[in-house]
Amino acid sequence: MLSTYKEKIGIWDWYEEESVISTNDTIKEYVEKLGKNIVVSAIHQTGGRGRRGNKWQEITGNLYFTYTQEAEAQELSKIVCIVGLSLAKAIKQRYKAGDIKIKWPNDVFLNGKKLSGILLENIKDTLWAIGIGVNVEKAPVLEGMPYQATSLKESGLILDRIELLHYYLQQFLSDMQEYRKNGFDKIRREWLDMAKGYKEKIKIKTEREVKEGFFEDIDDNGYLILKTNKGTEKIIAGDLFI
Ligand code: BTN
What we know:
The protein is α+β, with helices and mostly antiparallel strands. Helix content is 26%, strand content 36%. The longest helix has 22 residues, at 161-182. It is globular. The model has no long low-confidence stretch (mean pLDDT 95).
């Protein structure tokens, strides 16, 4: 395991594996042996997990990684937004990608199609695994979804996935520093500037129902404020579609 050590990126010791089932599982083994502040990437990920029990397909050349982050449970919804924002900013600023949007809470979309997915899981106590998949090389065909997926290459953006890993982690560090120092407000405004469907009519699929309304705002927890014909509702979890 230790032979896979590459270098330090920001505060994290970076390890790259040839093939794992899920980097969100592998990180737990690393943390047990080595402590926190670890990032693990994998060239192949054979059993990648998505949100709501979905699978995250493996396509050679795409980026799969998971890193550790300390956070109190009550700030997790904000961290979820920061992760999406940092990824959107890293891709937009470094690679001048065109139409980059964040679909609440943290899917990054390029030209109306899903480019990446993020899965946060608890490791122990206040230590979290933040797992990210980015379609660098090729997008999978999504079945039963109201949107399609895309890759950076499909938009003519040819890049080294490890370079993106570096840019992302540096961007996340800087956004976390802003949040820890000055609170969530600037992050919230930046997030809204890139939000898909903001100030538009949207639908939110929750565990139990589909709610329709107007995407009014996100609050200082990162929860979505939806204006419906019954009044204003705070949405804590769900899938947004337009
Ligand atoms: C989603 O949009 O449903 C979230 C997908 C998260 C995929 C990444 S790939 C790296 C990490 N390892 C996993 O098994 N899942 C996450």
